[in-house]
Amino acid sequence: MKAPTMKIFVLFEGFRESFDVTLDKSVMALKEMIKDRFPVRRCSDKQTRQYQMSFAGATIQDSWALGDIGVTAGSVIHCLLKSDQQPVLYVFNGVAGETLSIAGTETLLQTSVANLKNIVSDMSGLPISTFMLSRPSGVILYDCNLLQDYHLTVGSTVCLNTWDGWGPFLQGCLWGHRLTVQSHLSEEIQVKRFQLQVALYIAARSGHMDLACYLLEKGVRADKPVGVHPYRQWCRQTDHQNTGKCPIHAAAERNQLLILKLFINKNLLSLGCRDHSGRDPLRIAVQHGHRECVRYLADKLCSVVSLVNTLMSVRIYLQVKRWVKLGKGKAAHSQRCYTSTAFKAKLGTTLLIDGFNHTQMSSELRREEKELKTRVAGEALKIITPINEILSISNPPYETSTSVLARRHGVKSEERRQRPFGRRRDDGVMEKERVSQCRDRFILPLIYTVKVPRQTLVGPSSGTLNIMKSSLDSSHQCNQTSRSKAVYFFTLASTFTKKPWMKQLKIAQTLLRRHNCLCHSQNSD
């Protein structure tokens, strides 16, 4: 039976044309239809990749069918020309496990490593003082050198490494998980303070209100620079200039209005906080074009502060506070020149000097965490009982769990008398006995699996499966887990920002069902 046709509209550079299509027609077939209507030349494969079609605010792929993404009669699809530019460098982010593509020209390779770290920090969301860049061979890229000094060419890959054991902590900061951040704080006081400042910076940049409120309650200040790791306090002369950025500067750059309100209500003096270039949050918001943040910050600066016997504008009040701070700093500096040492390091503390001692930034877990994971995995394997032993339980049906427990406790007491005094049992054995007691006390019911047929939007057609075969074979393998497939297709469907959430969910289900049908047909062949 032939599929019914419907009329849709395509917009391209001010032109609008109508087309009669079917639900099973692919996006690539629609591009073939419009090449005769619009003044577009498609002579080679390289030019074909430059064409991009979007629907409901999301970019649609060539292998998708129009019915799968929710295209109905009267829908409007936008067609654009997109230049296909090869990235200059690739940066493998060891924290998030993803590869960042840095676009640009070959002149980027003539810049310094410090400029590259600025780009990577803006793309990854991590402060500059929390990571370093290196070649895959292990050669560290220092900020003062140029990229061409390390023989980097177009298409080269650079690795992003963080401090050992900091991977789960930074992931919790990027996701806004407060409990994860709490569980991975260091036991050293100086390192813990630095971690809290890093967490507030990432929370301000990403807009995590819960994490930001928790850190402010812990006493972390939004107008304090992130700085560098305490192990690098003898290398302050070569620090990157962006280590002086504060969390409130990150919030102003990323247009996080709620975070700005939270910081300013907590401390009004954060309005006058300046970065390494002398910019306050208002100037940063103006340069990035964030109107709402500019309006709020300007209103705050024009407000009035009530003092003891006078009224003063916030701008003048911040200027007076800045003068007082500069005076205190000069007085403390002059006193420190005669009464204190040049560094704050104490005997026994760890110091890291670039190029002399072994680096501690390899994105590896701490040794204690490795040993803990290995020990927990070993105990879990000991606790798990094979299925044949569970099925061959020889207890009589009339024997109750109370009698079983009494008999087991009796055996334990006899074994305890035979053991020498003062010897303690292993934790793994105690856990195994406790699990076995719980198995005898509770009887799990049988599990029946009932297959319920799912509702389908559009029935799969052979033509659509053949069209999707080339794209799915290259990008997703059929041996992936169901969870990874669901996450991937729901991520694709979530790009349709103009569609409701339920429509996005149906699109993801349809794409996943087509993918499963294709994998099943390949396995049967």
Would you kindly provide a written description of the structure presented here, covering whatever features stand out?
There is one protein chain. With about 525 residues, the chain is an alpha+beta fold. Among the domains are: about 5-80, Phosphatidylinositol 3-kinase Catalytic Subunit, Chain A, domain 1 (Ubiquitin-like (UB roll), Roll), CATH 3.10.20.90; about 90-160, Ubiquitin-like (UB roll) (Roll), CATH 3.10.20; about 460-525. The chain has 19 helices and twelve strands. The strands form three sheets. The protein has a five-stranded mixed sheet, with helices on one face. It has a five-stranded mixed sheet with strand order 7-6-10-8-9, covered by helices on one side. Helix 6 runs parallel beside helix 8, helix 7 runs parallel beside helix 9 and helix 8 runs parallel beside helix 10. The radius of gyration is 31 Å and the shape is globular. Mean pLDDT is about 75; it is low at about 40-50, about 340-345, about 385-425 and about 440-475.
Secondary-structure blueprint:
Layout: E1 5-12, E2 15-22, H1 27-34, H2 45-48, E3 51-55, E4 58-60, E5 76-81, E6 89-93, E7 98-102, H3 113-124, E8 131-134, E9 140-141, E10 156-162, H4 167-175, H5 178-183, H6 189-206, H7 209-217, H8 247-253, H9 257-266, H10 281-288, H11 291-301, E11 304-306, E12 311-313, H12 314-339, H13 367-383, H14 387-391, H15 401-418, H16 427-441, H17 462-475, H18 482-494, H19 501-524
Parallel strand pairs: 1-5, 6-10
Antiparallel strand pairs: 1-2, 3-4, 3-5, 6-7, 8-9, 8-10, 11-12
